[in-house]
UniProtKB/TrEMBL annotation:
Keyword Nucleotide-binding: no
Native source organism of the sequence: Nannochloropsis salina CCMP1776
Record-annotated Pseudouridine synthase I TruA alpha/beta domain positions: 7-122, 165-278
Annotated protein name in UniProt: tRNA pseudouridine synthase
Reactions this protein catalyses: uridine(38/39/40) in tRNA = pseudouridine(38/39/40) in tRNA
Classification lineage: Eukaryota, Sar, Stramenopiles, Ochrophyta, Eustigmatophyceae
UniProt-listed Enzyme Commission number(s): 5.4.99.12
Length: 294
């Protein structure tokens, strides 16, 4: 078998998440992608898609990563053929995925065995998430951001206060129990957030007049996250931005180690997996500033 590393993006709105939920009527991204793979090489000629980050229902991915083991379909019994080229895999899957709102961005051959074996989940060095908030309303953003519906007479989000408050969560090993989802299966609530930036974002250049209010991004970098961690952090920062909590409250919530003292979780539609990085990625990508830093 040949192992391939695929970068994919998808609109999470029509899906139950990467995996299908027990009570969901929506399809799963994994099921749709694996169906395309089976059509391409045959069900018996491929392994299971191993994804880097399992996104929830309604959460989007700009650049998620998976690995996949494939054997090229034989013309006849006993026939052994050269593996497909990465470009063939990319083009074939995108053809089969038309209309699904899932796209393969790129594909490359990676090691399957030995010290250099690539694993999409366990080999990831950094994951980057963006949460998008819109202070007003927009039909174009309703399923792409958390539209707060503030009118022009109400206070806009205090981005400076949100950014200052978020810095209490950055750095050394911290217990994020207060920002952990109730169904989280991680053995430890301790994580290290490398950076959180809360910034104003530019309007969509194709719909510059269709967005009512400010667009704000909460941008978070870490090697790994707890279940619902970014959405719970955003929910607390949202309360700071509206003046319902002082910036100092974020540290108090963290120290409480109690999910019950934190504000409600932000909804799914504003969350994007922006990037997953590995040791073989370019030095610029792995060590440079995130794209949202001007």
């Amino acid at each position: 078998m040949q192992r391939y590393r695929l970068a994919i993006q998808y609109n999470g709105t029509p899906y139950s998440g990467w995996q299908k939920g027990a009570d969901s009527l929506k399809p799963a991204v994994q099921d749709v992608l694996e169906s395309a793979i089976h059509s391409f090489v045959g069900k018996d000629n491929c392994g299971v898609c191993q994804i880097s980050s399992r996104t929830d229902s309604g959460v989007h991915a700009l650049h998620n990563v998976l690995h996949l083991d494939l054997i090229r379909r034989a013309r006849q019994v006993g026939d052994v053929r050269e593996p497909h080229t990465p470009e063939t895999v990319r083009r074939a899957l995108n053809h089969l995925l038309q209309g699904s709102e899932i796209q393969v961005l790129n594909c490359r051959v990676v090691a399957r065995e030995g010290a250099e074996a690539f694993h999409a989940r366990y080999g990831a060095l950094e994951r980057r998430y963006i949460y998008r908030l819109l202070s007003g309303r927009s039909v174009f953003e309703a399923k792409r951001a958390w539209c707060l519906g503030l009118n022009v007479t109400e206070r806009r989000l205090d981005v400076a206060a949100m950014h200052a408050a978020a810095q209490a969560l950055v750095g050394e090993h911290m217990d994020f129990t207060s920002f952990r989802g109730k169904d989280c299966q991680a053995q430890s609530p301790v994580k290290i957030i490398r950076s959180i930036d809360v910034v104003h974002a530019s309007p969509d250049p194709f719909h510059p007049h269709a967005t009512c209010g400010d667009i704000v991004h909460v941008c978070v970098r870490a090697q790994s996250f707890l279940y619902h961690m970014v959405r719970n952090i955003t929910g607390a920062l949202h309360a700071v931005g509206l003046g319902r909590l002082p910036p100092s409250a974020i540290l108090d919530i963290l120290r409480a180690r109690d999910r019950g003292v934190a504000p409600p979780m932000a909804p799914a539609q504003g969350l994007y997996l922006e990037r997953v990085l590995y040791k073989d990625d370019s030095e610029e990508a792995a060590g440079g500033d995130p794209w949202w830093v001007n």
